[in-house]
Write a structure and sequence with these properties.
120 residues, Rossmann fold, single chain, 6 strands
């Protein structure tokens, strides 16, 4: 699968997904400081699933009705569970796979909620 990791995404997640064989572009490597609007637009245009820990992307997707490809995984991980975050995300991706496409997913330890993105 192909992902675009927002700057808010724990870089250990990027590394773990890459080791697992996934194609992950990291905003901090290709466009540091890019505005959220541009990051979401890039993910959509590239057909990549956006990985983020920034709740502002929910506002962009639903309130502004931005949904034209890709998908978003909003990661909500409390500090005590962060040690297992990278492997937990890899496991979730391997379990759920292509169902992430065209969805806004909220991941918390032990739970994944998928909501169909608007405009689909």
């Amino acid at each position: 699968m192909q992902f675009l990791a927002d700057e808010s995404c724990d870089f250990r997640v990027v590394q773990a997904l890459r080791v697992a064989g996934h194609d992950v572009l990291a905003v901090m490597e290709v466009a540091p400081g890019a505005p959220d609007f541009d990051v979401l637009k890039d993910a959509q245009e590239l057909g990549r699933i956006l990985l983020t820990e920034d709740r502002d992307f929910g506002q962009l997707v639903f309130a502004n009705r931005m949904a034209q490809g890709g998908g978003v995984v909003f990661i909500r991980c409390p500090e005590p569970a962060r040690a297992h975050l990278p492997q937990s995300i890899v496991s979730m991706v391997e379990r759920v796979g292509a169902r992430l496409e065209d969805h806004f997913a909220v991941w918390t330890p032990g739970r994944l909620r998928l909501r169909r993105a608007l405009g689909r």
